[in-house]
Amino acid sequence: MQSGSMNQVTKAELDPRLETPVVILSCPDELSDFATPERQEEMRGIYAQPGVIVVDNVVGEPLLAGLREGLSDYRRKFKEKFNFGRPETESFKRAYDETTKRMTELTRMLFGYDLKGAGTMSYRPLITADEPLHYDTYDVPCGEISLMAVLNFDIRPRVWNVGPSFREICRDSAADIEEILKKKNPGESPSVPIRSAGLKGFGPLKAGTPLHHIEFAPGAVWYANPKTTSHQIVYGGGAHFQQWNIDVSDCACQACLFEALGVNVPNLRAPAPATPA
Ligand SMILES: [Fe+2]
């Protein structure tokens, strides 16, 4: 194994039919060099668009080696949970704590948010491959945006395809979406039927949809809103996730986009019925 995974760079092939920007930055020696009001405003705008923001070489070899102590060859089945535990060694714990601090600090500097802490963390030392193209299904309250940071700590690049944004599908495939969601139940995430339809060859995420192809380098951290950026993991090993909910004045959640673009969806904001006791 060659030791030179430092200074690997992320590669992206962009499909010109898609609007989603992919911005690739290199990490400065001092994270505070990112922290100008102009850049922070620009980064917030790109993230909300939605776009993908990549920073290469955020985490260096010593910390990556510590995080890799937990790596497994286990291949995750679609929808399976990520509860894989974490190693108990001092070297792992140190790497994990320092990485978490660094990702949090990078996020503060890049976006200028007053983050209270490290957010919701998820250490995923297993293999994910060949996902269907999808928007994530977890719930984010209207008026907030999910800010997701991902570190690739694997020895190989993490490979994503990125398809149309939620705004693009609402604008370009409204009739298909209305058909797919005409029986949507209260509390059900629209992401689920849209993903299922795509797998069956129907709607905006079906095979043949334009795709950006991105190979995130080991040590890179990137930001993408998985609720409004359609994505599929083509291949990925170890990755660490941090996620924050940020209050936004100009909401562009799935429900707000349906309303703004005139897509009629039943039970759009109705919560799931309480389960009878
Ligand atoms: Fe996802």
Walk me through the structure:
- The structure is a single chain.
- This protein has about 280 residues and is of the alpha+beta class.
- The protein has a domain of about 190 residues: Jelly Rolls.
- About 25% of the residues lie in helices and about 20% in strands.
- The chain has seven helices and eleven strands.
- The strands form two sheets. Strands 2-3-9-6-11-4 form a six-stranded mixed beta sheet, with helices on one face. A five-stranded antiparallel beta sheet has the order 1-8-7-10-5.
- β2, α1 and β3 form a beta-alpha-beta unit.
- It starts with 10 loop residues before the first strand and ends in a 17-residue tail after the last helix.
- The N terminus is likely disordered.
- The site of fe (ii) ion has 4 residues, from loops.
